[in-house]
Amino acid sequence: VQLVESGGGLVQPGGSLRLSCAVSGFTFSGYGMSWYRQAPGKERERVASITSVGGSRNYADSMKGRFTISRDNAKDTVYLQMNSLKSEETAVYYCNSYSGSFLWGQGTQDTVSS
After folding, report:
1. What is the pLDDT of residue 65?
2. Whole-angstrom Cα distance, residue 71 to residue 77?
3. Burial of 110 (0-12, 13-18, 19+ CB in 10 A)
4. How far is CA 96 from CA 12, 30, 34, in A?
5. What phi-psi label fits residue 103: left (phi over 0), alpha (psi between -120 and 50 degrees) or beta?
6. pLDDT tens per residue, range 84-98
7. Cα–Cα distance, 105 to 98 (Å, whole number)
8. How far apart are CA 55 and CA 49, in angstroms?
9. Strand runs (DSSP E) across the chain, as ranges?
10. Tens-digit pLDDT profile for residues 25-65
11. Is the dihedral of CA 9, 31, 99, 57 positive or negative?
């Protein structure tokens, strides 16, 4: 199993980023997927989740209305569109199954700073 996150970078407060996570080694369409993040000195937390065929999405309260999770089962890829980013959302962002059952990838660093 491989989870390869990309799309991070440096963005100013209020800016946007679109993250991608390309997966391989398992039947992607059979799994609900989540995005997680880990800020410096903090525990990893779940950001957003999507069911196996994308019919249902859930977000942590502070992300509702700003973040959108989506997936393309033909491309074995899950996405996270992040808008109106805040400086406190600087973190390494990861994808994994909803239960976090796979070996974690390296993540993608998002830095929100002016």
Report:
1. 94
2. 6
3. buried
4. 27, 13, 6
5. beta
6. 999 999 999 999 999
7. 15
8. 11
9. 2-6, 9-11, 17-24, 33-38, 45-50, 57-59, 67-72, 77-82, 91-97, 108-112
10. 999 999 999 999 999 999 999 999 999 988 899 999 999 99
11. positive
The amino acid that residue 108 corresponds to is T
DSSP helix/strand/coil, 103: coil
Q: Contact 110/17 with Cβ under 8 angstroms?
A: yes
- What is residue 2's predicted lDDT score, i.e. its pLDDT? 96
**93-114 confidence digits (pLDDT tens):** 999 999 999 999 999 999 999 9
| Rounded Cα distance, 3 and 6, in Å | 10
Structure tokens belonging to residue 35:
């995005």
